[in-house]
Amino acid sequence: MSWEFAALAILAAALISGFAWYERTHPGSRMIALVATLGGLAAIGRIAFAPIPNVKPTTDIIFIAGFALGGAPGFVVGAVAALSSNLLFGQGPWTPWQMVAWGLCGCFGALVGRLTGRKIGRVWLALACGLAGLGFGAIMDGSIWVTYAGGQGVSQYVAIAATSFPFNVAHAAGNVVFALAFGPALLRAVMRYRTRLDVKWTDAAPPAPAAAALAVALVIGCSALLPDSADAAGAPLKAARYLASAQNSDGGWGVARGSRSSAAQTSWAVVGLAAAGYDPLSVKSRGRSPRGLLLSYAARSRATADIERTTLALAAAGISTRSGGLRTRLLRSQRADGSFAGLVNLTSYGLLALRAAGVGASGAAVRRAATWIKRRQNRDGGFNYARRGGPSSIDDTAGAVQALAAAGQRGGSPVRRAANYLAARQNSDGGFALQAGGSSNSQSAALAAQALVAAGRNPDRQRRRGARSPLSYIRAMQRSTGAVRYSRSSSATPVWVTSQALAALAKRALPVRTVRR
After folding, report:
1. What is the number of other CB atoms lying within 10 angstroms of the CB of residue 23?
2. I need a surface site. Which of 227, 290, 299, 346 has the fewest CB within 10 A?
3. Distance CA 336, CA 312 (A)
4. 512 DSSP β-pair partners
5. What is the C-alpha separation between 440 and 428, in angstroms, rounded?
6. Going from the N-terminus, what domains does the chain have, and what CATH number goes with each?
7. 478 - beta bridge partners?
């Protein structure tokens, strides 16, 4: 077997493994769009700076993609950038080498992101991008050594590396300059979008009270709220049974029945079952409960959204939130101004996670978070996920209402104004849309219903534009299996939608509990 053939076989295996790795993460449409956009941006960066040999922002963009999104997306961004840009520069035996080399730059970015908790300064980011450029150059030197050197001795590689050294240094220096100039801004933009993607999953399933044996510091009283139909009482039970039937053999849950378990889906299935009054740890598949996975997620959670979601799930399952150092990382995630990552949605769920981790409503961390949230309320009473003055959304407003209620401010003006904003934007079918005027979906309807409960209102009596309530809309989306469809136009029944719908059907707001073990 020749060196060239062996190298190509290894490269092919690496590329197949990288793309398979990405596919196994089950990326959603928004993640696919983001990866494609970053891949295109990296390719354009290479083309735009083609007149300057080896000086281009491509490696920086790929590194930042891996840093913000993770190894699998980072690898794909690098590989796609190389393949697509070579449509202009020309395909050849160098293409798979470039695809793998830039893919590994994305993986290197993910490694640095994991080691730093995705927090890095401008200078360190620039230095890391420069190091990625040198690594890319070393791999491409290897491609010449294997393909064209006529011999694979060490001396040949050293000679090739010495010849290309000025070009590799120029590449690394260009990376440093580009990273210093635009790196932090691009990283913030990608991180914000990544956070928005995460929250779309985490907001989707607010936790609810677990078994009665667990201590609950705050439960929004709504036992007297009566359903508006005789079938209403069976809807939560059907949803809970569906979640139990969708459990995987490792004790966790995936996006859909039979799909691979993930941290987000397992966490929200746990709190959904808790909302129906089940002990989540008593729900087992082949003798395995979700406990082991939850403890694993607690030890591995580093991103703010992951830390918050896992904290809520552990509390719902009655597991100490100190497990794996989770509570400590949660406290460290809060900024000096009281926010979490400077975003309304993450600060809302961060406040709820603080309460679940045992921080009292009068605690300094909770008070600072609540104050920060209130200052971001829009004039219409709603909240935007990122800033004051941005378009208000149902999901972000619902999260803020529940957070402020958990901070002991249920009767305050901000909560009343936000609840009025929600009530005024109900659609005629009883549901709610992410943005006012859009089509209803089960996620937004469930979050709005929970927020109304947190504000002391009966969601069954919320019927602004017709005879249907948000809970009626959710029940209409429920299939005979108990699973809940995302919307009338979508037949998909993701686990997280059923989980959040279950919490709403049980008429529970996000719980606040203190678990002591």
Report:
1. 11
2. 299
3. 22
4. 218
5. 9
6. 3-199 (1.10.1760.20), 203-505 (1.50.10.20)
7. 484
